[in-house]
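Q: A reviewer asked whether we had any structural model of the full assembly, not just the individual parts. We don't, so I'm hoping you can provide one. Inputs are below.
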Amino acid sequence: MSLFPAEISEVMEVLLLRNYNTRLVVISTLLLGVASGLVGSFLLLRKRSLMSDTLSHACLPGIGLMFILVTLGGGDGKSIPLLLTGASISGLLGVGMVTAIRNTTKIKDDAAMGIVLSVFFGLGVVFLSVAQTLGGSAAGLETFIYGKTASMVEQDYQLLLGVTVAAGVMCMLLQKEFTLMCFDEEFARSLAWPVHGLDLLLMGLVTAVTVVGMQAVGLILIIAFMIIPAAAARFWTERYRVMWILSGCIGGLSGWLGASVSAWLPRLPAGAVIVLVAGCAFLFSLFFGGARGVLKLGLRRHHMRRKVGRQHLLRGIYELLEDEKTFANTPVSIKQLYAKRSWTHTELHKLISRAKKEDHIEVVSGDRLQMSESGFAEAARYTRNHRLWELYLIRFADVAARHVDRDADRVEHVLGPELVRQLEAELDAVEEMSPVIESPHDLHSGVGI
Amino acid sequence: MTWMMMDTWIVLVGVCCAVACALPGCLLVLRKMSMMGDAISHAVLPGLAIAFMVTGSRASVGMFAGAAVAGLLTAVFTQWVSHFGNVDRGAAMGIVFTTLFALGLILIVRGADKVDLDAGCVLYGNIEWTPMDLVSVGSLELPRALVILGSVMFLNLGIIVVLFKEFRIAAFDPALATTTGYHAGVLHYLLMIMVAVTTVASFEAVGSIIVIAMLIVPPCTAWLLTNRLGMMFFLSAVFGALSALLGHLAAIEVPTWFGFDSVSTSGMMATVSGLMFLAVWIAEPRGGLIARQLRRSRSDSVQSS
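A: Here is a predicted structure for the entire assembly that you could use as a starting point for your response.
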């Protein structure tokens, strides 16, 4: 038992940034997460998430070539600002190549990205192998591929801080412009906005964040940072602004948690731990997201299916009563119901037992069932809505009477009271045909669906 | 430049690898799934790590199985995320492969005490060392990588020859393929397994990034030159083989002009394949950049006269 409090205090120490070194690492990954979350959400909306993949690989030849040139020129080949400049130039060149290939050939976006990614990376490997022959000082270049989260120094920290804050502020300032460009490029162009310039600027921001991030968490893992927070945020909201902020938060949170966990488990590669944390955040959002999560959507679909099933059943019974010309709530036989719609045995019985639970119908004797008071009212209402919609389709949408049953079937379940009133007004059908209007087509001609 | 027996072996290994990749690559490019090669080649890492932990050896069979399973899972997970989560396909791919890659890195580090399977060898490979590792097949002493990659190449060739018609329909119209009775989904996952196995076979020899280059660049180059699928397979194999040959030549020859030693052959293979793509892109007679420019200036002069 004595071990436990000690462990907790250890965790608290990491989470609350008591240790100087940990503080550097945790804060910089947090910032990186926020910045890439903000920038990445624009990429996601432009359906260009994998551009960060291409970009990060395309940076490599710039790094290698810059190192070789500077070293041959007698300078310090490992000067970080110079290397990052090289990386940014070749990264942007790669992005330009993708656009050029896509625009001038039949090759699609994905293949263009693949070509640039692999060829630039191959070139980078060539340059790195040359750089290695220039003397042992090239060893540090590999950190661009694997990252060096745990061994970041003051200087890296300052650079990361500068770039991420600048990128974040830039995104905030241009949020409206970027958003419009993502959603409706043509409209932005018609407003005489410099869409190409904005696009370039966005790619520049992506490049800047990618390049400094590569150094921190490594090549593959910065890609994850660009994509995952934005995709996770998408499950929680339908409002773009909220998603954008949430994406930054999720990025920051996974950076903070991931860096803390990896500070606590120093033997594991920090970048990988951070990505796994982000991956868990994504998985959680995928299932439990409040707006588009799988559970939420599944639940909604389930409710809808129940509602549709109930409406079909009640309308079926009502139409049977109509056939008998009684217009009173009398028992009908289940066998007759089969003719109303292509129900299977199990489907129909499930519907009936559910409707029984909801007190809409009751089984009178063996295979005959009768609607309850409330069920009868509901059935009349559903039938009426269905007919109203059918009339509307016949009169205003020129749908032939023989087909209208099926067309109306698709829409009637989502008719709200507001819409029903509107339909009534349109059709002047209220007085002469209430409570339930006659079917506009022969109920026996077609096969019910 | 001195050409030795070793160089012949290196080129042969390169050719087998390039052809083995280029064949399934054509289908990837046509089905707009080029980045799937990238995703799978990264995502097989946990499969390799788990296979290693279970079998305790780097013997090929276990590793191939692990990689094939991991590759298949990548395709399945991507499908799920993009279908159930309604996420853009590219993003779904990015999420799946980066997470799996991270998982693989952690697994490898956990078992690192006894493993010499590092991420570096996965990324770069080491084609220069393949002739050192010989196995005897019958009375011949062949490099192990050549035997493996050669078999994978013939396997891929065999599958594509046998299922050519099915793949052709599925590549251009998956819905039609399904209605005519070939299950497009099965073909899709067969292709994914082919890519995964080819990737693993090529890891040691050329590294994952070069696999991606060979999967995508020669097929794209071929596609610019022809619209016929059979011709595209053939040309992409030729371009792949040429990249291997010229790439190795360039790797041992070009750097000496500048006073350097030879450079990474696998890097040079990707670079040369890129240069060939560039050449075709610029000079292709019907739709190349030059042809486009000529056509444009001609139509301009017609308009102005």
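A: Points you may want to mention in the reply: Strands of chain B lie at 134-137, 140-143. The radius of gyration of chain B is 21 Å.
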